[in-house]
């Protein structure tokens, strides 16, 4: 009887001839029969759940849900565990380490979960010609084929539902910022965004703004968050745009934090200047989760997105200039206005739901109307200078008072003086433990009065400058008039002299003629 070594040697000898001389139709048929036979011997079904889906463009939410679920059953049975954080989780998740297995039972049916990892070689964008080793992770669910329907139709849904619930219980909101594409991996969405826990304390209760205005904004936000079915019914992506505009220090960033805290959303702070082109922008937006705010602050300064769209000639000239610049700077952003519009409002905007897009700007008039039209930026919110209603909120926040003897003076002064809520808050903030509310309020009144005096002096100086300018203009006009009158007088005198000269010459010619006539008669 042949030994195992001899059998393997025979297989090694025969296999190349089999592949070379046997027609592929026969090999395909034999492979099908072999797979069917293996299925009879090993009647198990395997389902793979990769960490990244859609050709690596997006992290799988199912993978995170499965990891959360398995963390509850693997901690007691698996010897090697991996401690990490689930996405948006503030609790430590103990999951199976790589190449570990765990068994689960559902309605009397036993299933097996395994954690897999595959190393791949990838080319880095920053180091030309060099490759790095990266890892593709996945979970594999294995079960007997007799229970296919029960596992696929019931158990998988149960796992995903339980895993999602665990993630929600441990959820911690995050603040994300986009990384340079040089840090991306070409096959997956890893490292496109970096994040830290989001713990900003701002709420609408502490936001310095008119109460009625705040209530309208809150109502609009809450209405949006509850209208998934309505958006589907009218055929629109479940998203909404907010434009926050106003001078610096008026609370635009604080408003963003208040919105995130009200709706319990993650915040994606998108820095357009680090995005290489429109394609990268789409990939970044695809890698954002639902229930999130996508924020582009100071959009008027981010890229050339101001003014009206250029005509073709201007675009061609600008492209030539960009080509020259790109030779010296390979990281120059080529995100265009049309690319941004398509990303936030085109077909790609419908890829994931429940998102709010927020633009902020200090100069709304500079933005292209196409960028901020209704439908893209649905709600325009003016963040104005501090007025009395906003001041009362700040006084309650910083000094814990509801009224004061100086409130009437402050109300009058705030109507006359433009001061940002940030400046008012800084003045109201106690500078030591000994400073009481009276001192802070008096400091604000004094500052407002000083600012009013500055404004008055500036106005007087402007009036003096205008008066001086007007006087100079009048004097210049007077000199001009006098010069014109003198010029006209000189021209009239010159004309008169010329006419007298002409008359004198004419008389001279007449006398000469008469003299000639007399001389002729005498002859």
TrEMBL record:
The keyword Hydrolase applies. Residues 322-332, 466-503 have a biased composition (Basic and acidic residues). Residues 309-332, 455-523 are annotated as: Disordered. Transmembrane segments: none annotated. Keywords: ATP-binding, Hydrolase, Magnesium, Nucleotide-binding. It catalyses: ATP + H2O = ADP + phosphate + H(+). GO terms for biological process: response to stress. Signal peptide: none annotated. Gene3D superfamilies: 6.10.280.40, P-loop containing nucleotide triphosphate hydrolases. InterPro entries: AAA+_ATPase, AAA_N_dom, At3g28540-like_C, ATPase_AAA_core, Mitochondrial_chaperone_BCS1, P-loop_NTPase. Residues 238-387 form the AAA+ ATPase domain. SMART domains: AAA. GO terms for molecular function: ATP binding; hydrolase activity. Its cofactor is Mg(2+). PANTHER family: BCS1 AAA-TYPE ATPASE. Belongs to the AAA ATPase family. BCS1 subfamily. This is AAA-ATPase.
């Amino acid at each position: 009887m042949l030994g195992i070594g001899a059998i393997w040697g025979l297989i090694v000898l025969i296999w190349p001839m089999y592949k070379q001389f046997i027609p592929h139709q026969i090999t395909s048929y034999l492979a099908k029969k072999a797979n069917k036979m293996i299925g009879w011997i090993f009647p198990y079904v395997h389902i793979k759940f990769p960490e990244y889906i859609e050709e690596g463009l997006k992290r799988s939410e199912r993978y995170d849900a499965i990891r959360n679920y398995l963390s509850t059953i693997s901690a007691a049975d698996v010897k090697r565990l991996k401690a990490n954080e689930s996405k948006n989780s503030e609790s430590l998740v103990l999951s199976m380490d790589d190449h570990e297995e765990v068994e689960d039972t559902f309605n009397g049916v036993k299933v097996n979960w395994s954690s897999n990892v595959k190393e791949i070689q990838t080319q880095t964008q920053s180091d030309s010609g060099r490759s790095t080793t990266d890892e593709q992770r996945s979970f594999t669910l294995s079960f007997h084929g007799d229970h296919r329907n029960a596992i696929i139709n019931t158990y998988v849904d149960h796992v995903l539902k339980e895993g999602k619930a665990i993630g929600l219980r441990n959820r911690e909101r995050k603040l994300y910022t986009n990384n340079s594409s040089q840090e991306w991996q070409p096959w997956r969405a890893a490292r496109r965004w970096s994040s830290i826990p989001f713990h900003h304390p701002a709420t609408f209760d502490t936001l310095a703004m008119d109460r009625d205005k705040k209530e309208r904004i809150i109502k609009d936000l809450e209405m949006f968050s509850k209208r998934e079915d309505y958006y589907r019914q009218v055929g629109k992506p479940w998203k909404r745009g907010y434009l926050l505009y106003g001078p610096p220090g008026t609370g635009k960033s604080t408003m963003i934090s208040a919105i995130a805290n009200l709706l319990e959303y993650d915040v994606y702070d998108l820095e357009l200047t680090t995005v290489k082109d429109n394609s990268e922008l789409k990939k970044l937006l695809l890698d954002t989760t639902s229930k999130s705010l996508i924020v582009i602050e100071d959009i008027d300064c981010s890229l050339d997105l101001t003014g009206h769209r250029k005509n073709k000639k201007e675009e061609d000239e600008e492209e030539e200039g960009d080509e020259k610049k790109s030779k010296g700077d390979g990281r120059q952003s080529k995100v265009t206005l049309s690319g941004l519009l398509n990303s936030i409002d085109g077909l790609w905007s419908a890829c994931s739901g429940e998102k709010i897009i927020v633009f902020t700007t200090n100069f709304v008039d500079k933005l292209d109307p196409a960028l901020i039209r209704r439908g893209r930026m649905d709600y325009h919110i003016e963040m104005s200078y501090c007025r009395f209603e906003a001041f009362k909120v700040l006084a309650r926040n910083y000094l814990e008072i509801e009224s004061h003897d100086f409130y009437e003076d402050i109300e009058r002064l705030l109507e006359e003086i433009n001061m940002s809520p940030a400046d008012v808050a800084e003045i109201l903030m106690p500078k030591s433990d000994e400073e009481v509310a009276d001192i802070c309020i008096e400091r604000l009144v004094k500052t407002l009065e000083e600012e009013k005096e500055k404004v008055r002096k500036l106005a007087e100086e402007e009036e003096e400058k205008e008066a001086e300018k007007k006087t100079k203009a009048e004097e210049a006009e007077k000199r001009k008039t006098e010069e014109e009158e003198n010029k006209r007088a000189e021209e009239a005198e010159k004309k008169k002299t010329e006419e007298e000269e002409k008359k004198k010459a004419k008389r001279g010619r007449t006398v000469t003629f008469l003299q000639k006539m007399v001389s002729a008669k005498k002859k």
